[in-house]
Amino acid sequence: MAKRDYYETLGVSKGASADEIKKAYRQKAKELHPDRNADNPKAEAQFKEANEAYEVLKDADKKAAYDRFGHAAFEGGMGGGGGPRGGGMGQGDFASAFSDVFDDLFGDMMGGRRGGAGSRAQRGNDLRYNLRINLEDAYAGMSKTINVPTAVSCSSCKGTGAEGGSEPQTCPTCSGMGKVRAQQGFFTVERTCPTCNGLGQTIKDPCKSCHGAGRIEKEKSLSVNIPAGVETGTRIRLAGEGEAGMRGGPTGDLYIFIEVNEHALFERESTNLFCRVPVSIASAALGGEIEVPTIDGGRSRVKIPEGSQTGRQMRLRGKGMPALRGGGRGDMFIELQVETPVNLTARQKEILKEFDTIKADNNPQGSSFFSSVKSFWDSMKG
Predict the structure, then answer these.
(1) Which structural domain, as residue segments, surrounds residue 271?
(2) What confidence tens digit (pLDDT) does each residue in 289-299 have?
(3) Do 224 and 282 reside in the same domain of the chain?
């Protein structure tokens, strides 16, 4: 059976660039990989066919020969992707082609392209610090000193991990790559080098202070500026204040997560504050004025309208929390809680009983409720 055109196999035009050919092959390799097509008996053959096409088209000389002579360019032992006499790829050629694209498919996850030997210094970990503050501090903003347990660069070896000014040596097992590869059938498996643990270097004479790590554990004191308007969940990033990297690697970052404590008087919703204020029955019925606290430590006088009920709210504009990134301040809402008196004296009870005997239509909610009850009972009788 005649072989398929290599360009057709990869789904590209004859004038496709090297990048377009590589991109098409990567897509085919993912799509046709036998491990992802257990129910498709043709997948392995199609996968090998795509590898064979890519083995030729990725090479400028082989591609030029193929463009001129087609599959005949590789017949008669001339080499190329078709193998001897066009008999298909051998196991070694197939493994080589797949290994060739292994970095393209998985390079980002495995640490990027593997170039020459060199240091595999690792970036330090990012750190998290949970900071609890009061609502007053969130309102005004503050500067606070915190102590963070972390890893800092070793001063004895200046972060190299080597004693007495000596230098780390290239790892003999992985030649500085930090990775080792093993051939398993059609596939190339890549693992972290067991000798250097992926660092690409070994130290013959480790630093006595840090034991070759290039860093030591230490508590670091930092001053943190908390902006006004923060709320629970706000995250503050301090670049370069995380853990020091291994053997001179870059330092990680410190993330401070804010948690604002609950307040005894105020409840917060975004930039607005709510304050529940108890008022007596007489004050609610007759009206009057009350004095309420504000989050900045001040006081405001609020007028209570006659006949106020529990849950009634009054707004104090601009007395709430500041917006974190500008945009003014929220409002403060006073919510009335009409309080029923307890531990009444005999005289107080007498006055209330007398008041209750005076029939008047001055309980709108009660009148409405009992009117609804009467209608309900009448409908049930019907």
Answers:
(1) 262-382
(2) 999 999 999 99
(3) no
